[in-house]
Specification:
The chain is mainly alpha-helical and 93 residues long. It has one domain: Recoverin, domain 1. It has 4 helices and 2 strands, in the order αβααβα. It has a two-stranded antiparallel sheet.
């Protein structure tokens, strides 16, 4: 298996692991997003309820009160570009 395919499968697994904690297994609730951020990005973990609200709002692009897989992948792509130093002005969104 290629490294890229293994990484893609890993991203799917991470999403599924957190989405399975509550209700709909195809979306992340606000508390599931908070837990994902706490565990996977401890340096970005929101410190207040207001920060959780703001981060969730930025992730929930269509405003349906959950984060689906495409929304999750969008933030992963943006964060990857930022870490790589190749983020365009569009990423700052």
């Amino acid at each position: 298996m290629s490294q890229l395919l293994a990484t893609m499968l890993s991203l799917m697994d991470i999403f599924d692991r957190y989405a399975a904690n509550e209700g709909d297994k195809d979306t992340l609730s606000k508390s599931e997003v908070a837990q994902l951020l706490k565990n996977e990005f401890p340096e970005l973990e929101p410190k207040s309820k207001a920060q959780v609200e703001e981060m969730f709002k930025r992730l929930d692009l269509n405003g349906d009160s959950v984060v689906d897989f495409p929304e999750f992948m969008g933030i992963v792509a943006i964060m990857t570009c930022m870490l790589h130093g190749r983020c365009t002005k569009k990423c700052d969104g």
